[in-house]
Specification:
Length: 146
């Protein structure tokens, strides 16, 4: 799995002119699923992100977790994270097919909810507009293959 995690002051995803999900302080997570990913991969990545300490403490150091700041997550499916950019026109055959990707996307979100976080999301496969106010900015790339 691949994830781009951005610390945000607020973020939202709109589909067909309607806000589908929105959060205040927390993480905007663009999540891509690869063909070799499993439920275990989804849970491990969710756990790693939920425990990420990138929010500032009283000394201005990135030392607080999502839980410590009362943050939420907005998860947006992003098959383009598996783009093959060896040519001018990216190919996306490296991304998992929907029959694998959708259950793992949902498992990732369920684990975040099970940890007690408010989870908002986009719609798998939909044309979405994502809006965010990056905080810092702090953006971290996760790749479970590395």
């Amino acid at each position: 799995m691949r994830a781009v995690v951005t610390r945000v002051k607020r973020a939202s995803v709109t589909i067909d002119g309607r806000v589908n999900g929105q959060i205040g302080t927390g993480f905007l997570i663009l999540l891509g699923v690869g063909p070799d990913d499993t439920e275990e991969t989804a849970v491990k990545l969710a756990e790693k992100i939920c425990n990420l300490r990138v929010f500032e403490d009283e000394n201005g150091k990135m030392n607080r977790s999502l839980e410590q700041v009362g943050g939420s997550v907005l998860v947006v499916s992003q098959f383009t994270l598996y783009a093959d950019t060896s040519s001018r026109r990216p190919g996306f055959s490296g991304a998992a097919k929907p029959e694998l990707a959708i259950p793992l996307y949902e498992r990732f979100m369920r684990h975040c909810r099970d940890r007690g976080f408010a989870v908002e999301h986009g719609e798998f496969g939909a044309e979405m507009q994502v809006d965010s106010c990056n905080d810092g900015p702090v953006t971290i790339l996760f790749d479970t293959d590395k």
